[in-house]
Amino acid sequence: MQNRSCLIVDDSPVVRRAARRIVEGLGFTVREAKDGAEALVSCRTEMPEAVLLDWNMPVMDGLEFLKHVRAEHGPSRPIIVLCTTEASIDRIVEALAAGAQEYIMKPFDAGILHDKFVQAGLLSDAA
Amino acid sequence: MTPESFQFLTGLVKARSGIVLTTEKAYMLETRLAPILKRERLASLDALAGRLRSAPSLPLATEVVEALTTNESSFFRDGKPFEHLRKILPALAASRPAGQTLRVWSAASSTGQEAYSVAMIVNELGPVLGGRRVEILGTDLSRDVLARAQEGLFSQFEVQRGLPVQLLVKYFKPDSGRWRIADGLRTMVRWQCYNLLENPAILGRFDIIFCRNVLIYFDAATKTQVLSNISNQLQPDGYVYLGGAETVLGLTTRLVPSSGERGAYELMRSAAKAS
Q1: Hey, is the C-beta of B156 within 8 angstroms of any chain A C-beta?
Q2: How many domains, chain A?
């Protein structure tokens, strides 16, 4: 198995820690960022395969990061999964239109994260 | 709980549903029956067993069986059978005489995710099916889960298990903190209370039968009986889907694995029998 990487972007250290534990369990090496601006720098330094992305964050929010990263790197890299308390249809549609591959409504658990990584094409459904 | 109470309660479940609960499942009795104990003001599972022993025909017995036989479910569970279904439905639709309805059976449908997944696939295929009508039947032992399935109202947690977000947006609407499936899909599925141990002839013939992750709860004789029952209801060129951990080996010779398709089975053909 190749070294697979996921960047977890969330302003809450508690959420980052919980997500890290699950994502590492799915076989990914994890990096963290606490806002969109940090995440953008991280992607420029080394492109992760996947980004797990919170929406509401200080400095640069998730949607803004999403637009920047798509403008810079195109529609398919990295694969981006929103992970946010925003749960209205309008918000989901907005994120998909901006180029997100999948969308998680918090709270989440290992089962949801696994399923959404499958939907996003990051994992096979065999497990 | 005394061993006698455990034996009595699991015996009740076995007699009514065919499902075998082993001693490792003792924790499940505690958690699943706790709400019933509370409501009935019973102090323990022993007290519950005592009540049912003296009056086994109470509706309470049915409730206990239902509480112990419902399973966790997700949309498009295990992926593969649904990919296969997407592939073969157009061919089945094309092979039927004009006006004949394709029939899909979700046996042990639980809260409806499997049947609604089929409805979504049929809807997504749309014109590829050439206007062929598809009828989906969901059956379960539990009237409780059937009522939930019929309502088509799912928690935020449930709509995130197995369901791609694009389909969530397309087919579900928020409804007071939960998600309601579109009426167009809801009306594609009919629900019926049915016990897999009963003769399924009343349900008619099917082109596709989903019977997944339910055989695992039965003993060998019951597995054979259920597989024989569903084989009787399958169209000669139809398909049966079983769960990933399930097999027909040593249970029936009437169903054989579809080549290269994990979880998909078809009827043994006379030609194949001869070779």
Answers
A1: yes
A2: 1
